[in-house]
Amino acid sequence: MIACSGGPDSLALADVFGRLRDKWKLQLCIAHFEHGIRGEESKADAAFVRNFAIEQKVPFYMEAADVPAWAMQKKISLETAARDLRYAFLRRVSHAFGNACIATAHHADDQAETVLMHILRGTGTEGLAAMQPHTGDVIRPFLCVTRREIEEYCNNCGLEPRHDATNDELDCQRNRLRLGLLPQLRREYNPEITAALCRLSAIAADEGDFLQREAERLWPQVALYTEGILELRTEAFAALHPALQRVMLRKAVNRVRGNNKGISFFHFEELRRLLLAGRTGAALQLPQGLCAEIVYGSLKLFTKKTVAKTVGEFAQQKLIVPGHTKLLSLGMVVEAVVLEQQPEVHGTWEMFCDFDVLEGTLLVRPRQPGDHFCIANGTKKVKDFFIDQKIPRGERTRVPIFCDARGIFWLGGLRQPAFARAGCHTKRFLYLKVRQERV
Predict the structure, then answer these.
(1) Do 29 and 100 touch, CB atoms closer than 8 A?
(2) Which residue among 160, 247, 261, 400 has its CA within the 20 to 30 Å range from the CA of 348?
(3) How far is CA 121 from CA 11, 71, 117, 131, 298, in A?
(4) SS (H, E, C) 315-349
(5) In order of start, what are the domains of the chain with their CATH numbers?
(6) What is the pLDDT, as a whole number, of residue 285?
(7) Terminal CA-to-CA distance of the chain, rounded, Å?
(8) How many beta carbons lie within 10 A of that of residue 230, not counting itself?
(9) Cis before residue 322, ω within 30 degrees of 0?
(10) In which band, very low, low, confident or very high, does the pLDDT at 37 lie, cut at 50, 70 and 90?
């Protein structure tokens, strides 16, 4: 399906596909969106494209809309409104035409303008990559072709495209770049500025693709998604290169919200600092209802709509020693091993204690009223400890507490009490490691 405005670029694209139709056994249709911006001129453009489609014996689809009114209603720019409505129309036609690829006539000069626009606004690798020849259901066969080459093609083939006078006005940023800044850069700094910006885009796209593949490969080690809440493990995240950390955060936000709209570079950097600090109880409110909170070695990312769905208190279970105990509602597995030599621990979710001091059945359970644990000079209430540590009230029943018949010997991921601590006379060590995974 060829998106055709009637201008030189899209008319040339439609003509090229028409010439390749038999050779490549293509089924074609032409779609035209009338924006309602230029009055009778817009209607004349639509009639021109319809007649061209008839001459080419290609099915024609058209839709008209009042883009200015839509932009005002949605409080967005005219350019954004036109793009949103146009692509919504094109996708409806695509589905009606057997889920056809949508071919647009974006070319090398468009790409250069887009890259430069992103640079001026402030961007990263993803923004520098700009448009790609193939993105989802959209193909852009002309990205390697310049505007001048397209105009020469139209002249050589006898095509007489329409001219959109709004492209000559300096009322939007893209027009000012195309008519003012780029010619100046070409004239005074680099005659091949278009090619240079397109090369930059290609390099950024390749490097971005590499980072995306690495992020996909490492994702299971860093992230866990359960019931609308995404958790990023702080230790695993901190071990990543900053470039991968940023890709992971964009991927995480997109997983929770479905898109990254409204979340700026500065928001992502705030998220990254929150994760690297790793202080339990620290939280961040982001645009459009996105919430982030550090809880027990992980950053939880969720929207206000899903916060009420957080999994609640888990049930008391017998700790399997040696073996693995699955805490289903927490998405955790506890590994227990009895050793004769003191083990090494790496992080807050591992511990060891004196196995022979423990008595009776070993349990892992949520907090209970009146819970307390031993400290060097007496005891402390678990409730007071949670308050001191600024553990959110809704998360306190999700802390796995490990105890025997006499008392608590580990507040999972937070504190090891004085009771049952290993010493110089310890002969057998109970080693526990908690990991988060789908169980």
Answers:
(1) yes
(2) 247
(3) 31, 21, 6, 16, 33
(4) CCEECCCCEEEEEHHHCEEEEEEEECCCCCCCCCC
(5) 2-200 (3.40.50.620), 227-309 (3.30.465.60), 317-436 (no CATH)
(6) 87
(7) 46
(8) 20
(9) yes
(10) confident
